[in-house]
Fold these 3 entries.
Entry 1:
Amino acid sequence: MEYNITKHAKTLELDAVLERLSFEAQSEAAKETAKKLIPCNNFAEVKDNLAETEDAYILISRFSAPSLYADISIPSVLTRSKASADLSIKEILLIADLLRIIRSAKDWRNNCSGSGDMLIDKYFECLYPNKHLEERISFVIKSEEEIYDKASQELYNIRRKKSACSSKVRDVLDKIIRGSTSKYLQEAIVTQRDGRYVVPVKVEHKGNVSGIVHDTSATGSTVFIEPMSVVEANNEMRVLEAKEREEIARILAELSAEISDFSDTLKKSYDCVIALDLIFAKAKYAFKIGGSIPKLNTEGRIFLKRARHPLIGQKKAVPVTVGVGKDYDTLVITGPNTGGKTVTLKTIGLFCLMTMCGLMIPVDDGSEIAVFDKIFADIGDEQSIEQSLSTFSSHMVNIINILKQCNNKSLVLFDELCAGTDPVEGAAIAKSILMNLADKGAKTVATTHYPELKTYALDTYRVENAACEFDVETLRPTYKLIVGIPGSSNAFAISKKLGLGDDIIELAKGQLTEEDIRFERLARELEIERKKAEDERIAATRLRSEIEESKKRYDNLENELKLKQKKIVEDSRKKANDIVNDARNRSASLLNELEEMKKAFNKENAGDSVENARKLYKDSIKKLEEDADPIENNVVGEKLKSPPKPGDVVVISSINRDANILEVDQTKKKALVMSGSIKMWVSFDELLMKKINKNKDIKKTRNVTGLMSRADRVVAGEIDLRGMASDEAIMELDRYIDSAVLSGITTVSIIHGKGTGVLRKAVQVYLKGHKNIASYRLGVFGEGENGVTIAQIK
């Protein structure tokens, strides 16, 4: 017997899926093609078909679906056209519709920007628009019953003459119905009979109106007479009508010839439109069922992760995870009736067939499907209205045919294998069939109630048990499949729950063998342990999810706080810089005014005023810059614990400068100090004892030639040039670097402020050419950033 894929596909209800797929197609031809899809067993072709469906799925999700409706009668019209037949107006309009669809589909794909090259593009590339022919048809034909007057010059002239002739006839007839003859008329109207203009005359007065009688009313009381005065005009009208028909026929023949020249290309484009319609229908159906693309293989591996049967409502369908072909080649599913065994069986076979038809399947990512040469199904399913209860013999005939045709590239599905006969003999035959299929290398899934098959699955390599879960408390199946343990029919528990007497149930249990009792006990214990493990897994998953959610929430909060902090700092710095710039501008303006005053007044007095103003300006700028960009002090001092004495190293707190004490005036509580090259008297209150890192103390050398040694020379680790002009600042910096070199300092901080950047640039140009500077860089956060330059001394 030859393999019949259609029979087994119908058993697995592929036809019902294809019927639903057809609803998503636009064209009748695509609908019919969808219903007749046959699963393909060529791996490369299946892979390409799925890739095309995925392309359409992506395009729909980003750009919506294109319009792809094409009339099913178009192929026959193109066949007639190719045979040089003259097409009717309706047929030509169908071609115009096809040309419009071809053009719009091509434009739609060209407008799908950013989608890149796709496998589906081969169909769009075979769409050949013909804008000239499309516009020509639109210019000529107005509707299925009418041609435009300007379809040709000849037609325009004919219709203009017809209009003039018609007006002439009506004028003559209007005079008749309004003149003396009107008394003989049934009604004062002009009508037509057989395309000729007539007037309705009362039958008793037909002799009073000369003309030709063309018709009589149903009652016989009225005759329709063509007056002799309009006979010639009516004859002319008939001639013009004949010419009009001839001209229309000529125009249609001309259009038909143009279509004939393009018919082969139109046929290819039509076929591509139908193919695209089917592909996009598959993508639309995938959206409806929540489909995805499984991983393909040719090794017989099936793994369905949270599979939902597409013919069961999404809200009712219970996801099932099942596989075969990886760790085991045969899966024996057991459990109570209506527990979901048959649905699981059908889901496995149906999803393989759908994939081989190029359809996406409703599973989670990570699923895998094998492309089989042959798929067999023996399912006596009373749950399907299309199936009827089969006898043991009819099932056996089907099983025998399956055993003859299957091989290592086959998937075999049995529902209630060898049921309907003696249980002992049936179980023995069923076991032998599974063993035979395993020897052939086929992948097999079978449902059963036979305990012998459960034992076979436990004892045999690459054969596995699976159970459909059943809630005994509610007497309802959960429809969950548990792979790895045998199922139980739960007949005793169900019967007791329904009210069967305990004495009968105990008596029934006494009929069981010791082996049966031990097996059932083992199955129950396995189920209890499995439920415990499942509950613990769910609890652990929930806890892990809560922890991850909390961590994510705290991370977001931390990031948010950092961003807010950064924004506050930036806003504050910007505001402070604005204040500094404003003060700088106002101070500069004041100095300009003072310069003008200097010219107008006594040079000596004005010079003192300008100098005082300049000092005030520098102090203001320095204070504002310190507020706007505070620099962390590296030198920290302590309060004096005893009166200072000459030789002490102190810090002048008001300017944060290191200094050496030269003299002390205890009466005035002041000390003469030297900071750098500057000597000044400072109050004891402004002096702090400098903290010295003992690990970095430099041993004093004997003073020779009256010069200060490095240890005797005190130089601060930074210099502040803010408020100075560039030339003044460079001179001060030059002296400072010389002192730093002599003191052995290796790193100095040069504070020039941010401002306009002129002073910073002058300092860096000077440092770049200084022979004692090894390198320099801008400060980082906490050092003053680009308001400070850090220099390394050689």
Entry 2:
Amino acid sequence: MKIPISWLRDYVDLPESIEEMAEKLSFSGLEVEEIIEVGAALKGIITGKIEEISPHPDADRLVVTQVNDGSKRIQIVTGATNISVGDIVPVSPPGAVLSNGMKIKVSKLRGIESSGMLCSEAELGVADEADGIWILPTNTPVGVDFIDYAQLKESLLDIAILPNRGDCQSIIGTARECATLLNLPLKRPEFKLNESKAETAVDLNSKSADCPLYSLRELSSCSLNKTPLWMQRRLELCGIRPIQLFVDITNYVLLEFGQPLHAFDTNSLKGTSISIENIIASSTFKALDGQAYTLEKDDLVICDESGPIAIAGVMGGKSTEVTENTTSVSLEAAYFDPIRVRKTGTRLRLRTESATRFEKSVDIEGVIEAANRASYLFQTLAGATVKNINVFKSEKDPLFKEKLLNFDPEGINKLLGTTYERKDIQETLESLGFKINGDTLVVPSFRQHDISELPCIAEEIARLKGMENIPSTLPQGPSLKASQLASFEFDQLIQNTLCARGFSEVNTFPMVSEKSFKKAGLPIEGTLHIANPISQDESVMRTQLFVSLLERLSFNRRRQQKDCHFFEIGKAFNESIKPHFEDKRLCVVASGTYFKEAYTETSRQENTYSIFHMKGLLEGLFSDHSISFDSNDSRTFLHPKKQCSILNNEGQIIGFIGTLHPNVASEFDVSDDTVVAEISFLSLDLAPKFPSYQSVSKFPTIKRDLALLAPKELSYGDIKSFLLANKPKLVTDIQLFDVFESDQLGEDKKSIAITFTYENKEASLTDDEVNKSHQDLRTLISEKLPVSIR
């Protein structure tokens, strides 16, 4: 937003150094992107009145004028065609300098002496082009310094207003910040409004919670006079084109107070009632810019008895616009919901000055004051008769309740690491409009939307006192809870281990597309959809991490990166997970070769990542958490013969390992041998397990072998799970040492040879003890497993 310094000085006594003020504002959070100097080269321009115009004796296209500069008559030759006797115009006498740096001298044009020049807007830097001489209002004084009178030489602050600081999107709001930074009083505009006893004869009714406050005031007997030069210049300097007096007044107050207003032609309104309501069904609306817009359900509109006459907070309608024939204006001032205005304005692609202010929230307590200010300007500049204002107010709306917070100077100092006195903090906040009663702080109405707790208050103190004044100290605060620390340390262990084994950590967004779900063959039901996604590629919260990692794997493979080993510790989301729908997980994806430089035939054959590599990796990572594996799994996105579930110590499924199904690999354009593993931390105890010392037994071990004839579909993993759950106490280790298949055994049979280690740490074992224990184990295996002992 561009802020003219001269306008700012109406409300606060700024220092001479604009650079110093700009620096203070930037350090306080209102970044001054640029200081713009307008008309810096201008010098010596005055106003003059044309008293006589005569033809040039030797040039058909030139005329000789006699101009009164307030003290004497001067002769100026010009080629302008839009001037008349009696016009008041800008004059550059000899010695004056134009905006382009040209210095005016006495000269002769076709033999006639010319002592100066009549100026256009372009020559004074006000406009890029001009059709003729700048004709000034008839009440412009003659002989005055036109540079000061018309504010031709001005300094502008171009300030970047943050989304949460809508209160600063006005001249008064910025002046308030300057006054606080300089410890100076804020001078609000003073005016006295003379209201007639006549009432504004319109019934108001808001049928929508999006409009808790709406006011309308009739201004009758208005004269469409020319907009004063000072108002035109201020609008132009702020980037708004002057249109006509009635519109210019509403724009002026918008800039001054930050409150958008709208002027309806009273005689164009139908009926005696105005309602504010949300659209029920789609309809077409013709706006002030002459364009027809399609309004959709829930768009907020202003209606008379004929239908919509304005899109609330965005733009008025063509049917009720003020024109040169307007003599009675109905002035609207209201508060519209920021979200509703932004949704409508964004969808319609109407980024108006009004919409940009409403969507950042306006001061609901300043609505009527802004309406009164505009009414005063209508009264003084257009001679309007001001009727009583008509107001609709939803008293129960939370916006009309004072926002109270605890005033805690000690907490503010603790948070900032400062030692400011209570009185100092209180005075700073009060200069910003806060009220303090004992230990209670009342938030001003224009900051209710962004001040909500102690850190917000501390931020105000920090930025206004100066970040540079806060001493540098080591971070202070409570230490992590044991559970938080354990989780953090476990994450670090996983990260360090996997990185050491050649994996790269990735961080992906938790939002994915529905298309990615379909490619992975995952159901879309039960997923959390984002209400207003940035794009369709980020519209659904992922229920599995591997979807995101497969997209990254695909991205890298399209760039000739064939050997990709990725992992991520992140969150998946599901409606069934209460209360926050979040599930912290580890996902590991590997594709391509295990070693970079495999040069022998044997090493090349064993160099592709497999499900067994991944299983061993997870067993090492979760060795303290008693995880196990179950091959009876049937996930559709994994190869039916190359997958298994991961179980916790209670037998609950907490994850999976497997090779991608060829169809899924094809959808993501990745290799068929891609291995994926994913495990949830939700039911794992991440508390650190401290190793305890166990001495080596002094007594010898005894080994017994067992050969089983088993069906080919029965895996060793299933057999070992059974043995670990039912083994005798004396068995301390179980190892597979041979798997054999032959025609003699049968087409559907295989031989599995297993070694059992028996050990007693307190005494030497006898053959009888081992034989009895081993026989019991043989009997149990024969009874419970579909095998025979060879």
Entry 3:
Amino acid sequence: MSAGQVALVATLAVPAVGASVVAALPSRADRAARLVGTVAAAVTLVVSAALYRPGDGGWFSFGPNPPAIRPWHDLDVSWASGLDLRFHLGVDGISYPLVVLTALLTLLCCGYTLWHVPDPGRGRLLTALLLAIEVGILGTFLALDLVLFFVFFEVVLLPMYAVIAVWGGPDRRHAARKFVLYTLLGSVLLLVGVFTVVSAAGTGDIVALTAANPLSRGTQLAAFTLLALGLAVKAPLWPLHTWLPDAHTEAPTVGSVILAGVLLKMGTYGLIRVAVGVAPEGARWAAPVVGSLAVAAIIVGSLVCLAQRELKRLIAYSSVGHMGFVMLGIATLTATGLQAALIGNVAHGIITGLLFFLAGAVKDRAHTGLLDDLGGLRERAPGLAGVLGFAAIASLGLPGLAGFWGEAFAVVGSLRRGGPLWSTLAAIAALGGALTAAYFLRLLRRVSHGPASPVVAAMPAGLARPELASWGPLVLLALAVGLVPALVLGMAHDPVQALTEVVNR
């Protein structure tokens, strides 16, 4: 095996082994187990970062029409020969940023548990579940076989259910059940879509399916509909989003960070890699509907945020709007739109992950998330208020910060698609961007300004070092991606161009 293939396997094996070891340690060694889990997460981040292959000019060796998927590293071995199933892994410029983001957020969450474990304790099991979730998410981003993609997609379900149901808020059982029921609905549709493609094409290899496009028009329409609906539940696309606010609100801080930061990206990444790549004709056919629903998500999410009175719930609904911009970028099927979706995915993971860390810190100190009770935060805890203000401004899309590029490129991509429909969608999406600024500024006014409320006046004033260690990398990344978007867009340029050629074939 090459070094790249070893790194691919290690990216999945290290957190899997770490989860098993942490779960096997006795309960009396709870802190030691959390430390082991954090070390496993750190090793995973190092290994996943090593997957990067700079200066890969191999695309040009394929002439003017390179393949739509040409992984930097590729591992393809027989998995179940009797069923012709392949264990096919690979990473390229589309998947790599999400792989690293997943590893980073998992490390920050595991490190956070060293300092703070929510009730009812048992941090050892929480850390093991976080690592198990990481395996499923990383596998989803690395899988280049449809069946393997589906398997990893489902690995996440039960561990995330347990995180919400055991360590969540007062209505955690209801939120966890709702998460499972919606996700199972999407999984059934996704499974039928995978079966439709594999049975018609005779293979589940995503690279081969994207390159050869062997499906008939009718099969592509059916397959895209099924795949897109199944993935849209996870994204989530309006009106399939109603599980999200409850899950985010009731989940513990680390659960909300993983949910918002990377779990939602499984749906949008799957739409780009699987649904659009495997069924491009179906994508062209359904693009106006997907784009319209995406813009509806932007507007509905923003209006609901303007009426929200609870901090975590407001941030949860903001995800509906932000992911609407990602879905709009995908729906345009242009290089600009797909690039908008990719950088929007990364920016949302960074910024909203930071926002949920901050929301958790506020609730832990004030014991409430109601906006009416949180006035005057900057008077009592100026450091916390300052970081919250930075994250809110980054999320509303201020130029120079990470949130700007995905929203701006999605609107530009829609305009470049042209025609009355797409121009109208671009205009409405731009209005949604203004509404995003309105509800985040309202949030800052309600929480940070004015005299300190009684609960805020009783809060501790300082920031703990573990909090700074968890938040610091996300603050720096929000600045880095905002100032140098080529960190994400540069490595994805060639595969995005090749994918748009497949779509426009």
